[in-house]
Amino acid sequence: MTKTKSIQTTLTHSDYRPPAGFAAYPTPIHHASTVLFKDVASLRSGDWRSKQAYTYGLHGTPTTFTLEARLAAIEGGTHCLLTPSGLAAISMILLALLKSGDDVLLPDNVYNPTRELGRWLANDFGVSARFYDPLVGAGIADLIQPNTTLIWTEAPGSVSMEVPDLRAICAAAHDKGILVALDNTWAAGLALRGFDVGADIVMQALTKYQSGGSDVLMGAVITRDTAINDRIATSHMRLGMGVGGDDAWLVLRGLETMKLRFDAHDASARKVAAWLEGRPEIAKVLHPAFEDCPGHDVWKRDFTGAGGLFSVVFDARFSGEQVDRFVDALALFGIGYSWGGTHSLAVPYRMQGMRRGWPETGPLVRFNIGLEGTDDLIADIEQALGRL
Q1: What pTM was computed for the model?
Q2: N or C: which terminus of the chain has fewer CB atoms within 10 Å of its end residue's CB?
C-alpha cells in the first residue's frame, strides 16, 4: 500500500478509528448489505440460521438482532424474524408451513389480506383454505381433517372484535398434532402473550404500537421451537425478507414507551366507548372489555388490557351513506387504516359483504383512539353524530 492514497480511496478507506469507551443508551444503526469477514475460513463457516455470526445484511445486523431479541422477550419467545410488513410476516408463515395438498383453517373475522392469501393459496397452489367461526372454541376439533396442517387465529378480530378461546383451540389442535399461529397485533404482546395460551407461532405487525408514529412498516414472527423457527427462517431467506437499519432503530426507540402509550390508548378508548354506549345512534359497542362484545368472558380470563382499537355498530335506521357522512364530519379523526399511532382514526365498513353470517344490520365504524385529549375526541364524535 502506497503512503499517498487517491482521493477516491481516501473517501472510502479512512484511517480514523474512534476512541474506545463511548457508551450511550440508543442502539447504533448499522447500515450494511455486505458484511466483512476477518478471513476466508470465517466466511465459509458463517451460518445465517444460527445468528451466532453476521453473514449478510439481509440476514441481520447488530441493530436488527437487538430488535429481534427484545421482541422475543416481550412475547416470551426465543426466536424472532423481522419482515418488511405485518402482511409479509403472515405470508412468510403460510408459505413456510403449507404445501400443495395441505389444509389451513382461518377464522371468518380474519384480517382481510390474510383472507385473500388463503384464497390465493387455494386457487393457485392447491392448498385447501377453509374458514371457521372465530367463537368455535373446542369445536375446532370437528373441523380438523387428516390433511389439516395449520390453524390460524386472530385475537380479537381486528374489525368485528370477537375474542376467540385460544386455549381451547390450541388444546384441540395440539391433541391432533396441528400447529397454531396467532396474529397478536391487537395485544402487541402486552395485553396477551400468545405462548401462554398455547400458540406455536406468534406474529405481530410492528407498524402499530411498537413504532407508535404511524411511520414504519414492519412485521415480526416469534417462536419458541427451534425446528419451527428453522422452517420459517428458510422461507425468510428464500423470499428475501429483510428490514433496513433505520426502520429497525425507529421501532427500537418506540419500544421503550410502548407500554405507557398502550395503557394511555386503552384508558382513553374505554372512556370513549362507554360514552358511545349511551348514545341512541349506536346499537352496539364492540369492545372486548365490554360485556356485550362476543368473547368478552375469554378476554376477561386471558387478557390484561385492550389498547385503543374498537368498533361500533350504528342503529339500523342509518344508511351506509349517512355513516360515511358521519366519518367525513370528524375533525380530529383521520380516515385511514392501521392503529397504534398517536393520531385517532375512523374507518367505516360494510360488514355484510365481508363476513359470512354477520348478525348485525347497521353500518360499522372502527375507531383507533390516539393520544389526543379524550374529552376533545368525544366532543368531536358528538358534533359528527349531529351530521347524520
Answers
A1: 0.93
A2: N
pLDDT digits (tens, 9 = 90+) for 371-383: 999 999 999 999 9
Q: Which three cell numbers stand for residue 135?
A: 367463537
Contacts of 343 (CB under 8 A, 6+ apart): 214, 334, 370, 371, 372
Single out the residue of 154, 182, 188 nearest to residue 341, CA to CA: 188
DSSP state of 195: G
Bridge partners of 204, per DSSP, are 220
> For 178-197, how does the pLDDT look when each residue is reduced to its tens digit (9 = 90+)?
999 999 999 999 999 999 99
Closest to 313 in 3D by CA, of 366, 372, 241: 366
Q: Say how far apart CA 167 and CA 298 lie, in whole Å.
A: 9
From CA 179, how far away is CA 104, in angstroms rounded? 10
Torsion over CA: 195, 199, 201, 207 (sign) = negative
Cell digits of residue 315: 342503529
Asked if residues 316 and 362 have their Cβ atoms less than 8 Å apart, the reply is yes
Q: What DSSP state is assigned to residue 26?
A: S
